[in-house]
Amino acid sequence: MSAPRTSTTVINDPEIVAEVRAVFDRYEAALTGNDVPVLEELFWNAPQTTRYGVGENLYGWQAISAFRRARQTGPFKRTLHNTVITTYGRDFATANTEYLRQGHDRPGRETKTLMRTADGWRIVSAHVSLLGETV
User: How confident is the model over 90-130, as pLDDT tens digits?
Assistant: First the structure.
């Protein structure tokens, strides 16, 4: 069975999905291991890059890098659920997942938009949010 097409764009070519999954897994390992250099590498180094976090809105790679370097978070564990990676052609993808961080009772959601660059796949936009009310 071939991947679906929209006009000439192949959706979820298995080869491209595997490439993006490898980047997704590398990012997850870097995030939970607090490997800041890898986290910085995987974001597109450009002023157009965005990251909306639970408590911050970051515009541009420099702001994202400064945020990562200032955080005092050490390694942590979390469980991922309902991860969906969708590729659109050979150079654009989204990765969405739900998570529960160990020691926290509020589940979260995370979205990454990725683009193939001359340096490989890079996150061009990310969004992290928590579900449920804060009391």
Answer: 999 999 999 999 999 999 999 999 999 999 999 999 999 99
For residues 53 and 38, give the distance between their C-alpha atoms in angstroms, rounded to a whole number.
18
Both tokens of 96, joined, read 């969405």
Report DSSP state, residue 43: B
Q: Mind listing the domains of the chain with CATH numbers? A: 8-130 (3.10.450.50)
Closest to 129 measured CA to CA, from 32, 50, 54: 54
